[in-house]
Amino acid sequence: MSRNKQKEQLFYKYFEEWIDLYKLGAVRPVTLRKYRMTNQRIIELAPKLRMKHLNRQSYQLLLNDYAKTHEKQTTMDFHHQIKGAILDAVDEGILDKNPTRKIVIKGKEASEKNTKFLNQFELQLLLKRLELGPEINWDWFILLLAKTGLRFSEALALTPNDFDFSTQKLSINKTWNYKISKGEFQPTKNESSNRKVQLDWQVAMQFSQLIKGLDEGCPIFAKKTSI
User: Fold this and answer.
1) What's the CA dihedral at 206, 210, 214, 216 to 10 degrees?
2) What confidence tens digit (pLDDT) does each residue in 146-195 have?
3) Architecture of the domain whose range is 120-211
4) What top-level class would CATH report for the domain 3-92?
């Protein structure tokens, strides 16, 4: 495509092609869906915006329109997803200047957030009510989360191979994608999420009995169905 045609291209079309070129196959499906959703919002808010008209003012107007119905942090996330494509357009000579420079992030007032954790007293009450039988069930799952602090998707991905009872440690090296119908293993969020987690002796003894005879490479809790 010639430079003049690139400048005439609609911004959402450029962003769509940029996603396919740089993000498709390089990011996790859930992240790719976020990029697609961002592009859909661009189509809704600025369907006629062309690359040649993308400047600091038009970009600020786009962010302002988005911010009318979103909180400040969400607007910041929206901006960060678009910014990479815009900087590439500057590098490619499609844009003469960086329109994201000195932009202002706005947003509607943040709503009151619901508490997403249990305090120590509530946790102890929950643990006392668990029905911990001789076979794996979701109560054992809750106990393991409480004792280790694992993320939900990390605990779902645990297999018997991840337990080292000689050192009483768990290997965290994958997660379980429970957002698709069949479920599947996927990498952890980042490299630093790969780690060893210490088990207390009682939990280690309990799980050494619970997972006897289970397929060593299959998830203990998750099945290949949606949660």
Assistant:
1) -10
2) 999 999 999 999 999 999 999 999 999 999 998 888 889 999 888 889 99
3) Orthogonal Bundle (1.10)
4) mainly alpha
